[in-house]
Write a structure and sequence with these properties.
single chain, alpha/beta, 7-stranded mixed sheet, globular
């Protein structure tokens, strides 16, 4: 049996359908998969190089961001805008996102998993930063919904495999 969350999407760690891709029109599948993959990439771009608060626009109005660790959940665009917009102004981050696997589950829904590695420091005032290990490594589980012809994130679950503190450039580097 497949576990579902309150919004009808798959619960974290669960597939929304039995193993094997659901049947669908190959071109529609391809277009949906590409649109959802682009959302995953736009998320990273906006956090690292754009306006972090604008990440909220990639979510449905009732979109959810959740972390398995610490039971942290942010629900709704306004809350998402405040959450991502509160990121420290002196934070420098770069995310490497790979292995994006999108599957269209219906005409208006899709799921994805992707891996991420995050390099991050606070206290950045410009210039190049000496190399350091990643701050976080993990994966995302995403549920997408097509709203008014546009694919958006309905839910993003974050699962950390490795994590450490964010270094502050004004402090000695942590080991």
């Amino acid at each position: 049996m497949i576990a579902e969350s309150d919004d009808g999407t798959a619960a974290p760690g669960q597939l929304p359908f039995p193993l094997g891709d659901p049947p669908g029109d190959p071109l529609d599948d391809l277009l949906a998969e590409r649109a959802c993959e682009r959302l995953v990439l736009d998320f990273v771009h906006r956090l690292d190089l754009g306006d972090p608060g604008s990440v909220a626009e990639l979510f449905t109005p009732d979109g959810v961001w959740e972390w398995a660790e610490g039971d942290r959940t942010v629900r709704g665009r306004e809350a998402l805008r405040a959450y991502f917009g509160a990121r420290p102004a002196d934070r420098l981050s770069r995310r490497v996102t790979t292995n994006i696997r999108v599957t269209r589950t219906s005409a208006t829904t899709a799921t994805a998993t992707s891996y991420f590695t995050i390099y991050r420091v606070d206290g950045h005032t410009g210039g190049m930063v000496p190399p350091r290990p990643p701050t976080q490594v993990g994966y995302y589980e995403d549920a997408f919904r097509r709203v008014d012809g546009r694919w958006l994130l309905a839910r993003r679950g974050t699962f950390l495999t490795f994590a450490g503190p964010t270094d502050h450039l004004g402090s000695p580097q942590r080991q």
